[in-house]
């Protein structure tokens, strides 16, 4: 994954809406950039795919990724998480 101002990590998972199988979130492992933190990115933030270099380019900056709430894989997505996420 690449933000507008640099790399942010790798996609480790995708979460779908079970009603119509639309991707809701891409889960990103930020690796050493944010000490292995995992964050969720909305597919709305995807700008383009570069299949030759296996990169997903986002339309957001690294600061927005850094400010995202940490992904908790154990707990289901709650309204509280989504409210914090969209803030």
Beta-strand content: 35-45%
The overall number of domains is: 1
Report the major sheet. 3 strands, antiparallel
Mean pLDDT comes to: 84
Task: Give the distance, in angstroms, between the N- and C-terminal Cα atoms.
Answer: 22 Å
Question: In CATH terms, what is the fold-level topology?
Answer: SH3 type barrels
Fraction of residues in helices? 10-25%
Number of helices: 2
What is the topology, as strand order, of the major beta sheet?
3-4-5
- In N-to-C order, the SSE pattern is EEEEEEEHH
Give unreliable regions as ranges. none
User: Strand tally, please?
Assistant: 7
CATH class: Mainly Beta
Q: Specify the structural class.
A: alpha+beta
Radius of gyration: 13 Å
CATH architecture: Roll
Descriptive overview:
The protein is of the alpha+beta class and 87 residues long. The chain has a single domain (2-86), classed as SH3 type barrels (Roll). Helix content is 15%, strand content 36%. The chain has two helices and seven strands. It has helices spanning 62-66, 79-86; strands at 2-3, 6-7, 10-16, 23-29, 38-41, 46-50, 55-58. The strands form three sheets. Strands 3-4-5 form a three-stranded antiparallel sheet, with no helix packed on it. Strands 1-2 form a two-stranded antiparallel sheet. A two-stranded antiparallel sheet has the order 6-7. Strand 4 (23-29) and strand 5 (38-41) form a beta hairpin. The longest helix has 8 residues, at 79-86. The two termini are 22 Å apart. The model has no long low-confidence stretch (mean pLDDT 84).
């Amino acid at each position: 994954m690449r933000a507008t101002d640099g790399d942010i990590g790798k996609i480790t998972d995708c979460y779908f809406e079970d009603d119509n199988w639309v991707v809701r979130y891409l889960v990103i492992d930020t690796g050493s950039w944010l000490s292995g933190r995992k964050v969720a990115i909305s597919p709305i933030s995807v700008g383009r795919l570069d299949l030759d270099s296996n990169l997903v380019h986002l339309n957001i900056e690294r600061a927005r990724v850094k400010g995202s709430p940490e992904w908790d894989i154990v707990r289901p997505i709650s309204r509280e998480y989504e409210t914090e996420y969209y803030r």
